[in-house]
Amino acid sequence: MSEPVLKAEKLDAADDLAPLRDRFLLDDVVYLDGNSLGALPAGVPDRVADVVRRQWGELRIRSWDESGWWTAPERIGDRIAPLVGAAAGQIVVGDSTSVNIFKALVAAVRMAGEDRTEILVDASTFPTDGYIASSVARLTGRTLRAVTPAEVPAALSGRTAAVLLNHVDYRTGRLHDLPSLTAAVHAAGAVAVWDLCHSAGALPVGLDEHGVDLAVGCTYKYLNGGPGAPAYLYVRRSLQDRFDSPLPGWNSHVEPFGMRPEYAPAPGALRGRVGTPDILSMLALEAALEVWDGVSIDAVRAKSLALTDFFLECVAAYVPGGRVESLTPVPHEERGSQVALRCADAGDAMKRLIERGVVGDFRAPDVLRFGFTPLYVGFADAERAARVLGEVLGGA
Amino acid sequence: MSEPVLKAEKLDAADDLAPLRDRFLLDDVVYLDGNSLGALPAGVPDRVADVVRRQWGELRIRSWDESGWWTAPERIGDRIAPLVGAAAGQIVVGDSTSVNIFKALVAAVRMAGEDRTEILVDASTFPTDGYIASSVARLTGRTLRAVTPAEVPAALSGRTAAVLLNHVDYRTGRLHDLPSLTAAVHAAGAVAVWDLCHSAGALPVGLDEHGVDLAVGCTYKYLNGGPGAPAYLYVRRSLQDRFDSPLPGWNSHVEPFGMRPEYAPAPGALRGRVGTPDILSMLALEAALEVWDGVSIDAVRAKSLALTDFFLECVAAYVPGGRVESLTPVPHEERGSQVALRCADAGDAMKRLIERGVVGDFRAPDVLRFGFTPLYVGFADAERAARVLGEVLGGA
């Protein structure tokens, strides 16, 4: 056996998280696209069947109380909270990531006050964040400026209302320095809004510890909630009374069944709710989150870094020189849980990888993206992926 | 047997829609709360199980293409279209009703132009519509005025930007005159936005025929899509190029996987999309809509009116005089598919009805609400509900 294969065996044998793979329904595909759609947790199918057949089909309307449907957004928010370093009562689940970015950014601008006229947004952001930020600027009469995260400290001023940043860049996998950027935003008197889509579930976030104001994330990547599972919104406890939502739906009313013509917001995190929550998707997510029982996010982070280190090592061993270039930073403190390789014919290469049982994804125009979900990806997977990539790109 | 019982038997025997009840999973409860949460269509559990186990669990990320996840919002919109009198290509499914009202009303105000400074909203509306309208007014710098639908024609002026109306009042079951109100709104040069939550699936709407501009509806009432199933947005074809969304997420980009920093909206109905759609809830809805195969909405309307007529007749026969007062209009052209009875101790009365197997709902402070879903409610159900109500309220 080759050296990488032997090393993978050793690493897998020493991996305390390896048994967690059994909490998912998987096959022999090497699935490195959990940063786009997480794999199916084993407990989800039966839970969803129960929600459909018994809770909806038999209890029907009674389930809003008896099956806990009404309180699901806050309850599941509290289930996500420890994974992102938040105490209970600050996260609510529901709506898409885009809609939550809209809520968070409008609320942030309102918190900052009238004399703060500029919004800063990560120039390399996932597109939807930029589109929504632009809409928020237009609706609130602010200007929008796109800067790289590195440029943020210099771009901040007394005019800055809010800054929307990504914890991990969706394309390159670069991890941004949330603690120091948040501190810089606060030093300028502005409000920090973080998008956690590519970090939550893969590494410690520390929302409370680092004083993040508002945060948004999706649940279908490293949280394995299922396709289009509802996103979540974090509002720091000390800001909740000032959270002034642009989407004041009846679900966030202090007395939702009072059917009052005047809006009066509920206290706490549920002020971020809007309309009736999508119960099937939401309760699938709740079941999915049970895979985290007893799992330490620090252990997940350690394995994630070991996996991406090892994958890069195997790529260097298997892929002919010059065929790929890693866009993912080498220093651990700058790396999320994915490896992005620039490659001349990336679209075609990914097709051939998938045909051979290695699933990553292609991001136009020239990026091969490989996501490492420590809960179900092992070192042998990383070795095989690099080996097949080497074959596809004409290596040994 | 009593006269109402005999009459119910005759009416059920002559009911061509009676066999449709077999398309649902039901029991011996009289379920008159389908205007809050529709019953479970028989085809949904297996479909959802397939979506979870095979589409998500086995195909995983490939399902966005191979299982048609990506195009579901438009495809399911086209499935709803004939039920509300719309040609294909004008409806997109996704997000909650509240979020869609926000999109529609901001877009309507933008269509109306800068010199149109006032939004009118139904004063008796379901609360969320009013809350969202108020937020739209605040964000777009318009004023908001609440008027009853009857007052709309007199309230319209050259200052009116948009009018948000409910087709059927959620509380009383009153059906408003969509054709003539829409015509009045248009005569004033304003944009008509209709909320169809309590009409779609219960009666013909005729969106295209009556020139409605924008419409929004939920899918978990008479469309039986399941708890919190995604809502839909109708944008009349001739207005689609002018639909300027306040929630321009990446899913409505003309080239969503181009990952471009500048937003460029897609043509057509899918301009109303925002973020990643909640696939489990959405595909449950798609399966649920199959109960409409071969069903005429005119036949549904005829049965709905016959059911509510008969229920009112039975209430008169069984309930002691003066104990309840119907808030639902007697003329057919003013009646939706529910009967609302004002009753002094409505909360307690509904509790006792539910204990005896008759499920309606209570709307504070004093309304008993009974929804009649012609696809699965029969005349014997109406008779039994009225009879039990009579018992509960101390009748014979």
From TrEMBL, chains A, B:
GO terms for cellular component: cytoplasm. The modification N6-(pyridoxal phosphate)lysine is found at K221. GO terms for biological process: anthranilate metabolic process; L-kynurenine catabolic process; L-tryptophan catabolic process to kynurenine; NAD+ biosynthetic process; quinolinate biosynthetic process. Pyridoxal 5'-phosphate binds at T97, S98, F126, P127, T128, D129, D195, H198, Y220, W250, T276. NCBIfam families: kynureninase. Catalyzes the cleavage of L-kynurenine (L-Kyn) and L-3-hydroxykynurenine (L-3OHKyn) into anthranilic acid (AA) and 3-hydroxyanthranilic acid (3-OHAA), respectively. This is Kynureninase. It comes from Streptomyces fodineus. The gene is kynU.
